[in-house]
Design brief:
- With about 575 residues, the protein is of the alpha/beta class.
- The protein has 3 domains: about 15-25 and about 125-150 and about 250-335 and about 460-550, D-Amino Acid Oxidase, Chain A, domain 2; about 40-120 and about 155-245 and about 345-420, FAD/NAD(P)-binding domain (3-Layer(bba) Sandwich); about 425-455, no CATH class.
- The strands form 8 sheets. Strands 9-8-19-20-21-18-22 form a 7-stranded mixed beta sheet.
- The chain is globular.
- The relative contact order is 0.19.
């Protein structure tokens, strides 16, 4: 989806963000097992890194397989399954649309009905609009966006519910422990090292200092979510290619208590986006008077002054939306990136010696249907089955774990992504041509155009420098970035070290780009230089795609989402 208006004045030059981005810090993310610097050590049989839908589903399925095997007289015995989560509590770093396809829930919990799952309501109806600055035109719902049989949900609530099921199955869940490095033994992944806590701004040890811990495992499943640091590092270390580079979108979302109910799921394209940016908005009913609003914009946009947070504030003033929010209250705000590259951006393999990569970390998101949760859960289920067989064989090397790739490749995950493989890349040609080509792809079920559409990385896209349109929030319908971060529940301490790795010699126009790009006000231009307000960060990872690299910080830092 794209639009036809947006921020930006006259062009004043151009640049590609990649020229100013620091390299991925693999030297501190790939560490030999047993290397110095760790405090306590813990041994697990299988470790899932990230307690999102992928990691928790994998842990639940693996625990079930082990239990059934033991009940049938198998020889595995006690298998220690761990799930590591950087948030202080489950769900606090989880953000999604979310309209959910229940398929993976039904497979993971065959004895339950849809009414038992943590959904808010069935999709009551749907409407799609093309927006202009002052009006809207209702469009036919594209086949990929039809949601009959799907459910509106909160991903935070889904994660908490899955966590309860995992703990009931005997899974060990460790919250507040970010994984900062992969531990390796030769070419084998042997576990992870967590992040130290209690450090000051300059890295000095404060009174509450706690060193990092090493957690070893026979298999490490990387279910870190979007733009996972360890998954990126492993793919680079092992030189695993993809046909196209992965590309991302930034989604900014708000939860509102409102006076006017909504009787349908609404999606829009068009205003307030420029025609050379890919994206659109959504408005979902969680309850009669609780609405979820979001704007998603591809990070290959070309106007350096484009600001997704500001565009979302403008969107609320549009006649189609304003009446829903007037007199209401903003209760929660958040932001997150989304992998959008689809089929051609998937890594050539998602498994190796002692490791598998799941969910958003692998790129299992279908942009035309706006779906990723059930793919993430299904990938966790497949990973569990491959890991279980590897444990039974007593061999967790790359050969047995390649069964995970075979299961994914033979599933609806891959067939769905293959059918829509060129739809997102088509919009690199602009809104109108992209829309025509995407329509032809729908009619031919992906056979048109008969070739791969090539995409560049987001950081390689050239940005045109220009002035931003003035914007002053009113504090009621529209909010500043500072007020928005407060609504995310972010209480990160001010003295935390910066977890953002900046490149050298960043010029003022690129600093301004970072200022607009970040929805949380992390970056400021001060006397022509870059100031980083690291505590503001809500871990959306947009900065990691286009600017300073993101690395994990001490456990519990960042947002504390409740209903996202």
């Amino acid at each position: 989806m794209t639009g036809n208006q947006g921020a930006g004045g006259g062009d004043q030059g151009a640049f590609a963000p990649a020229a100013y981005q620091a390299a991925l810090p693999t030297e501190r993310v790939i560490l030999p097992v047993g290397s110095e610097g760790a405090g306590d050590q813990l041994e697990m049989d299988v470790l899932f890194v990230g307690a999102g839908p992928a990691g928790l589903s994998g842990a639940i399925e693996l625990a079930r397989l082990v239990r059934h095997d033991n009940e049938a007289g198998g020889s595995l015995g006690d298998v220690q399954i761990g799930v590591l989560e950087k948030a202080e509590a489950l769900g606090e770093h989880s953000l999604s649309g979310a309209v959910v396809n229940p398929r993976a829930f039904r497979e993971l919990f065959p004895d339950l009905s849809d009414a038992d799952f943590p959904f808010r309501q069935a999709v009551p109806g749907e409407r799609v609009y093309l927006l202009t600055a002052g009006g809207s035109l209702r469009l036919p719902t594209p086949p990929t966006m039809k949601n009959h049989g799907n459910y509106v949900a909160s991903i935070c609530e889904i994660v908490r519910w899955l966590g309860e099921k995992a703990e009931a199955a005997g899974v060990n869940i460790f919250t507040g422990f970010p994984a900062g490095a992969l531990l390796v033994d030769g070419q084998r992944v042997a576990g992870v090292r967590t992040v130290a806590s209690g450090l000051g701004r300059d890295g000095e040890q404060l009174g509450g200092y706690a060193p990092p811990n090493d957690i070893t495992a026979k298999v490490t499943a990387l279910s870190e979510g979007t733009r996972g640091l360890l998954a990126q590092a492993w793919l680079e270390w092992q030189q695993v290619p993809s046909v196209n580079p992965q590309v991302y979108a930034l989604g900014v979302k708000e939860i509102w208590e409102t006076k006017q109910p909504l009787d349908a799921v609404i999606h829009t394209l068009g205003w307030p986006l420029p025609t050379d940016a890919f994206g659109g908005s959504f408005l979902y009913p969680l309850e009669p008077n609780l609405l979820a609003l979001g704007l998603v914009v591809g990070l290959d946009y070309h106007r350096a002054a484009l600001d997704v947070h500001v565009l979302l504030q403008r969107l609320k003033q549009h006649p189609l939306f304003r009446s829903y929010f007037e007199g209401g209250e903003l209760v929660e705000w958040g932001a997150k990136t989304i992998p959008e590259g689809g089929y051609h951006a998937l890594p050539g393999r998602r498994s190796g010696d002692g490791v598998v990569i799941l969910g958003d970390s692998a790129g299992f998101v279908d942009v035309p249907s706006l779906k990723g949760i059930h793919y993430a859960m299904q990938s966790g289920i497949f990973a569990a089955r491959a890991i279980f067989q590897a444990l039974k064989r007593g061999d967790q090397s790359a050969g047995p774990l390649a069964e995970y790739d075979r299961l994914v490749s033979g599933s609806y995950i891959m067939s769905d992504l293959h059918r829509t493989r060129n739809m997102r890349p088509a919009f690199t040609h602009g809104f109108y041509r992209g829309g025509i080509e995407a329509g032809l792809m729908s009619l031919t079920k992906g056979r048109f155009p008969g070739r791969r559409i090539v995409m560049d990385s987001d950081a390689a896209a050239v940005r045109r420098v220009g002035s931003a349109e003035p914007f002053t929030p009113d504090g009621a319908l529209t909010v500043s970035k500072v007020d928005a971060v407060f609504k995310s529940g972010n209480t990160t301490r001010d003295t935390i070290p910066s977890h953002l790795v900046t490149g050298p010699d960043v010029p003022p126009e690129v600093v301004d780009f970072y200022v607009h790009m970040c929805p949380a006000g992390v970056y400021e231009r001060v006397d022509g230089g870059l100031r980083v307000n690291a505590p503001n960060c809500v871990d959306c990872k947009a900065t990691d795609v286009l600017g300073p690299r993101w690395t994990p910080r001490e456990g519990g830092s960042g947002p504390k989402y409740k209903r996202m």
